[in-house]
Structure formats: C-alpha cells, structure tokens
Amino acid sequence: MIDEDEVSSPVSPPVRLSAEQELTLRRIEQFLYYEARLQDLHAYDDWEALWADDAVYWIPANGDNTDPETQMSIIYDNRSRIGIRVKQLKTGKRHTQTPRSQLARIIANIEFVGQNGNEFDVRANSFIHEESLRGPATWAARNEYRLRLVDGAFKLVRKKVVLVNNNKPIYTLSFLV
Amino acid sequence: MQATPTAIPASRPRPDYGSLVQINRIHSSLYYDEQIYREEVERIWHKTWVYVGHTSEVPKRNDYVIKSIGPTPVLLVHNRHGEISLLQNKCPHRGNLLCAYQKGNRSSFTCPYHAWTFANSGELTGLAFADGYEGVDKSQFSLGKVPRIGIYRGFVFGSFATDGPSLEEHLGDARRALDQLLENSPEGELDLTAGFLQHRTQANWKFMVENETDGYHPGSVHSSIFQVASSPVPGLYKPESVALTRDYGNGHTEFDLRPAWRKAGKPMYWFNTSEERLPDYTQAMRKAYGPERARQIMIDGSPHIMIFPNLFIAEIQMFVIQPVSVNESIQHVTALQFKGAPDFNRRLRQQTMGSVGPAGFLLADDTEMYERNHRGAMINNPEWIVLTRGEKRETRDADGHRIGHSTDEVPQRGIWRHYLKLMTE
Hints:
The complex is a heterodimer of chains A (177) and B (425).
Chain A: H1 19-40, H2 44-48, E1 51-60, E2 73-78, H3 79-90, E3 102-116, E4 119-132, E5 135-150, E6 153-163
Parallel strand pairs in A: 1-6
Antiparallel strand pairs in A: 1-2, 3-4, 4-5, 5-6
Chain B: H1 17-20, E1 25-27, H2 29-32, H3 34-45, E2 50-54, E3 63-69, E4 72-78, E5 84-88, E6 103-105, E7 108-110, E8 117-119, E9 124-126, E10 148-152, E11 155-159, H4 167-171, H5 175-182, E12 197-201, H6 205-212, H7 218-221, H8 223-228, E13 244-249, E14 252-256, H9 258-264, H10 279-289, H11 291-300, E15 304-307, E16 311-314, E17 317-325, E18 328-335, H12 342-355, H13 363-377, E19 384-386, E20 395-396, E21 402-405, H14 410-424
Antiparallel strand pairs in B: 1-19, 2-11, 3-4, 3-6, 4-5, 7-8, 8-9, 10-11, 12-18, 13-14, 13-21, 14-15, 15-16, 16-17, 17-18, 20-21
Helix pairs in contact in B: 10-11
C-alpha cells in the first residue's frame, strides 16, 4: 500500500544528445553491462573497485524519494559501508549468500539524462531473476546513476535503486543489486 | 500484505498441546501444521494483547496508519475527537476493504464500492441514495472496533477479546524494560518517525519470537559481520559474558545486558560510542536527569526485550512480527528515535539501516536461518527440537523471574510455557 499523500514526480522529456554524447552513451552502456556482470557473477572486489571515494549507494524504501537522512532505507551506504558490505560477503560466512544466489539480470532503458563536466547522470531499468535456497525471486527496479569519468574510466559516484515494490514486504536482498 | 483466511473450521480434533510442548522439547509440527496455526490465530493473535503501533505514528488529529493484529489489518486512528482508536478496515455494508492507503490524514473514510461514508471514529455518517433505506438506524452500521485498546507510555496494544487480563497485568514486570527504554530520551518519549522496512520471511512466526532472545546464535550466525566490523556486542554472547537471559512470564523474555555494560562502566559504550561523540545528547540527558542518573542511564543503555507475541525492542531498533500464514511472516522494523536527541537519532538510523531489513548485515542472516528453520522442521526425523541449554544452571532473580546465562535457552522455555497455557486454557 502507498501513502495517501504520495505524489508522482514530473517526467522530463528525453535529452537531445550531441555526437560526442552519443559516443559517451555507448561507453556508459558498456560500463553498466560490466557492472551487471560483476554483480551476477559475485565478483566482489572488481565491483567494489567501481566506486568513487565519495560514493553513495542508496536503495530507498516506501517510495521513490523518501529522504534518506530522516527515513529508513533498505540500503544507504557511504563508501566505507560499501566496503564493509563487500568484506562481509567475502568472509564466506554471510549465510544468506552461502550458497550464493544464482543471478541473471537485464539492464535496459539506458538513458543519458544530463552532463556536468566529467559527471554523467544516467537512468536504466533492471530486471533480475534470482535463484536461492528459498526458490526463485524476481526483482524490478528503476535505477539512477551518477558516473564520473576519471583517467578514461567511469566510477560510480551515486547509484540509486528504486525497487518497484519497496513499500511492500520483500524477501532478503543480500546479493549485489 | 493481505491476511489469509483463518476462520476455516478445524478439520480434526484439537492437537494435544501438552504432549507437543514439553517445554525443553518441542514437536516440529508446531511450526508447520495449518490447523495449529489457525488455532494460534484464534487463541493468541485474536485474543491476547498484541502490539499495534505507537502514538507518535499518528501525532496529529485525523492521522491514520494501517497496522495489523496478527494476520488482520487494523486502522490505528487519531480520530476527530482526539482519541486513539483501532478500527477494522472493512465496510459493514458489503464487506469491501475500506481504506487502500498505508497512511494519511482524514476525518472520514468513504468506501469506494457504494460510497458509504464513516467518521474516523467509526460511525456511519452518509449513505448514497438514502431513499432505499427508509427508517434505517445508522448506528447499526458502524465500523468494527477492536474491542479493547491499551496504551502504555505511547505503545498501543489491542485485543480482540472483550475481556481478559488488563494490559498492565499482561506486561507485568516487562514494563520495566519499556521504562528503561524511554529513559534514553531526555524527554522520556519515543518519536517513531523514520518509517518501517518490511522483511518478508518464508517461515513460521515463532522462529522469530524465539530467536529474538536467543543468545546462543550470534557467535555463529553473525560471525561474518563481527569479523569485519568492531563492536562490543559479540562479547555479550560468549561463555565469559555476565549478561543474562530473563523470563518475565506471560511469554515476555529479555537479555539483561546491564551487568555487562556496568562492568565496562563507560557511558554510551553499549552503542559503541562515547559521551564525547554525542555532546548534545549528553548535555540534554544531564539536564533532564541530573549528571549522576544520566551517567547511569547512558551506561545501562537500551533494553533487549521480546514482548510476546510480536513487539521486539533490540536496543536501537524496534521490530513488529506479523504472521501472514503458517509459513510466512513479515518483520516490520524501524529505528528507535528518542524525543529531544537529534544527534543520537541520526546515528540510530544509520546503525539500524546497516543492521536490519532485507539487506541488513545482521537480519539478512537471521532471516536466512528462519527460512532454513522452517524447511528443517518439515523433515520428519528427528521430530523434536531441543531446548535444554542451561536448564541445570537456571536460577531466579530477586523478583522470582527465571534467569540464566546470556546464551542459555531460558527465554525459549519461557515462551513455550506461556504458549502452552494460551493454547490449552
């Protein structure tokens, strides 16, 4: 159920891309597919290395835009906590991931939203099939990214994962999403 | 999450609970048997006092939020007369679900099916096309009310039984833990404003209740996070710990961590921090309670108590356990927020978000165990699970409550003792 006062955000029209941005979008797509592959295959160190030092990894609860500074989120990690998350997975004693989830995800609707210097705002949808001891589960999310181009490679500065059912009871979410 | 039907008549004679619940030996079928679950809904969830919500969740007149009593949804309303009440979310005309939103602010509810309108205090105030209802007594069609509501210092409980023990009798000495909790606020009050995460769990609700005060599991279930993040918590659940388990009776159980925190003797050590790092909070506490008492409160910390059957205060966060069916439950969880403590509250939220919910460093692993507990219960040999840990060293405190070492199964035996009483009385 949703709150009665929940309002929908305005939908912005698509951005008109320059020729250079068209090329950047292709590189962004490759980066997001790579991130998806690292997550699906539990390549924890390589995934952690994608994050910038000032990174924020956010999975809100109870809506698209609940304030993470006052409201509960499913994940609201700074860079240090992303590190703890990865370290815990790597102990081999993170029971919810021993055995690991088996995963395949589709990243689609990749959209170039804006550019500020060497930083790019991007949206994408993800659809994930998970198999675990419990059985199959599917996850659907609208993702928002801020990527920074540093020495020719992208870093994740911000990743927001809006699960479509984030206001409902959801199963354990212990793989990288 | 919607309730599942529970009023299906029993298909076979009532189980012999006395033989299934032997206190230190429990039959696995208690976790997966459909008939037992239906009887639990009738005899526990729809009869005893069940925690519903907190008054700070409906602070303004006409605020409402959908909560539950067991599998049944209820509206927690701060009504137009300024009273806190619990209404059933069902139109008395044709039974339609009345309110489809999670929360909001309104003085009346209109059923979308035939537009019957009800005051948020329950009375029918308007009928569409009243000509077909000549001479009708509108007072016959009020919203269903939860017959009994009890509020202890902001904690709202409901009971579907029209009579029975009072809330005070039900809580007994477990009230002290709630008092201890509220002392952590300079204003003596909670302010639950951070919203709830809902963790869907494919397991029987009792696995959760039993685990909340199981001090034997942290060393293994949580070894991964203990290994990578430093905290005084692991030490509480080791053989040399001086922390205690306690059975308050009526199914309420706790870890009494105060002996361990007093041994350390450092304010806010229980929260893995210090007074210096929370200067505003420390100052507010000293002002409210005086320096000596404030120091003691901040050494003793926040309680760890499971109020039967569904309210779990885990030092920094609060869980509400909701059964949905015999093999599915929801863990609702939010950060505790203390009135008058903004700097402390911020850290409580951060710590809570790291620890609990579907992606939590702690609760994702607990929940993995619940789901494996349930699958294990359905394997038929051995039929029994064993709760004998610490049986021989169980003693009584000055008030006559059973106590044991922090890793002993004193709480689990206490929970089953009460369960047996409820299921057979």
